[in-house]
Amino acid sequence: MTDIKYNSTPSEAPPSYETAAKPANGAAGKPSPALRVPLPLDLPALNTIRGKRVILASASPRRKLLLAQIGLTQLEVIPSTVPEAFPKSLSPFEYAVKTATQKAMTVYSKEIDNVARGEPALVIAADTVVVSSLGLLLEKPRSEADHIAMLTTLRDTGPHKVFTAVTVMAPLTSARDPGYAMETTVEETTVRFDKEVTDDLILAYVKTREGADKAGGYGIQGVGAILVERIEGSFDNVVGLPLRATLGLIEKVLAQDDDLDDDLIGDVEDE
Fold first, then answer.
1. How far is residue 44's CA from residue 46's CA, in Å, rounded to a whole number?
2. What does pTM read for this prediction?
3. Using an 8 Å Cβ cutoff, are 39 and 47 in contact?
4. What is the per-residue DSSP string for 3-21?
5. Which of 26, 79, 131, 230 is a Cys-bridge partner for 32, taking CB atoms 3.0 to 4.6 Å apart?
6. From CA 153, how far away is CA 200, in angstroms rounded?
7. How far apart are CA 79 and CA 155, in angstroms?
8. Which residue in the list 42, 113, 127, 261 is annotated as catalytic?
């Protein structure tokens, strides 16, 4: 591998990894202007929860923007504060599922008895993990050196996998145990970095700090796309939330309440 060389332009040092991982605000502390979103999808499941409390149990601005694309623009963002302490010896599939489920359960349990705001109509949680072709679970980079090594590994060792687990929860109107409906799914996408990506390009990308807060160290929806040759599977899964799969979970969870109502009606008629 060639030695990494670069000049001092730009003269200002890039932000630290702690700073880069925080949500950005607009100039002089003003919030960034809101992005224009399309008209909401006219679907029964989405119409049911419109105007109600819908919680995203994640601080990811990318997931919030993705959900806005299907009309969920009035989300409450309440990240789970429980540490992600599951053993890395789990398969990527299991690790992502357990983490997403823990996030959803933690926030749901906290908010279901919220007297001031009322119970949530829906809680959405997700967890994305990146796995190298060598089977290494890649989390967010811890430093610039770690970031460079991570992206170099992804370039040099072949295609890697991105797994996103999504968990959706909703309270049931009936008294049936456990009192809520929950559905989980996992989406898998294969990503191949371009072998022609140079060390200089990797370093230049690392210094943008775009990937500092992302598992795997890059953002495919931004400048990080310059590193990618091709993908197989869902693009928005790599961004952090597979929209089609998430919409399917929302529909399944909300339909469970209707199914229980039908069962109760049937039981009464049978008596």
1. 6
2. 0.81
3. no
4. PP-----SSSPPPPHHHHT
5. 26
6. 15
7. 32
8. 127
Q: What are the tokens at 93?
A: 């599939």
Contacts of 10 (CB under 8 A, 6+ apart): none
pLDDT mean by block of 10 residues, the chain; 271 residues: 47 71 60 62 91 95 94 94 86 94 96 93 96 92 96 96 97 81 97 97 97 94 97 96 97 81 50 54
Place of tokens 């003003």: 30
Instruction: Determine whether 127 is an active site residue.
Output: yes
Count Cβ atoms within 10 A of the Cβ of residue 221 and give its class: 0-12 exposed, 13-18 middle, 19 or more buried: middle
Owner of token pair 């807060």: 213
Contact 129, 92 (CB under 8 A): yes
